[in-house]
Amino acid sequence: MPPTRHRSPLTAHTTDAPPAVTDVVIIGGGLFGAACAYWLARAGRRVTVLEAGSLACGASGSGAGLVVPTTPEPFEQATHRLGTRTARLVLRIAEKGFSLLRKASESDGIECLLRDNGHIQLAVGGTQLDRLAAHERALAAEGVRTEWLSPRDLRSSVSTQIAGDVRCGLLLPGGVVDPTLLVLALTRAAMDNGATVHTGTAVIEVRQAAKGVRVMTTRGMVRAEAAVVAVNAWAGHLVPELKQVVTPAQAQVLATDVLPPVFATGMSAAVSPDGEYWQQTRDGRVILGGCRVADGPNGVSALDREPEDAAHSGLLGVLPRLFPALGPIRAMQRRAAPIARTADHLPVVHRADENIWAAGGFNTHGTPLAMALSRALALAVPSGWAPAELAPFALTRPSLQAA
Asked: 21 by DSSP, 3-state: which?
């Protein structure tokens, strides 16, 4: 997405070939892999990160950078699907993940342009107003602080005309980050603690060995005590049991031309059935996403498809539809961001073998959960003991089996 004007926090070159022996291999250079490397390296483990392309080249670097520490689907729906106890636990884990992100940004120098000023969800029309009211009631019952914003109240966060059918907004906890900077900053911090990073290094196979694991790459074999497969939409290629569970899709994303300052927070609305979401970056561009596309016709994988012209045309109409005074919007960049989803909307954290863990299926709501679950997994990898936080995300969870 749009280049930042800030210097990249990752200045050291990645090495050409991975070491023959290490403590933990992280496969994947997106957010979850970078966060795992960050926690493990901080704990004194020798960490090797393997990435087939470049860091943050997948969904982690293509999103709008919204951070909303709630359940991936509205809490009242999550309660119905998962049960109250599990939904409540997922909510608390997401809140913990946001807290970890804030702490890393404030005390550990993780520069990701975090703005911790909330997220506004708009209600367009009466039906959405009713749904948003149900969402607010469910969150309030769990002690989550929200705030109703009338169209007049919205003017403090939206500096332009608002369409007449936008009934209100709901201010939720959260904020925005630069997602690419977040991945690079976590990776830089891991490297400062001894991790090595190897881009352009594809993993062919990861296998349990008599002692630890063996990871075959395009640049040789790596032996390690443990491995974490953190390739999200591609997880099924290395961990077969995830192939039918973590399924690929596309989130269409575009970056507009520079606009006057309009949006003070990250925002979302449901103009289409899939919903749209956006933030305005500090340089004035708006990163706008939505219009998800599943696997295409004739078996063409969503991971291999180009941006959808029709979807991007629809996205270009979202802001003028909601904020008429903006007029026509120009897209300066557009992407089909590869995402991964599961049938019950929760990511999977799976122990594939004694020393092999895998995670994927973060959809478009991954940042808070990725921060918290990577921290929990960093505790599990060296010890073999799985924290209770990982239980709702197990491959065998009832909600996933039912779906």
From this structure: strand
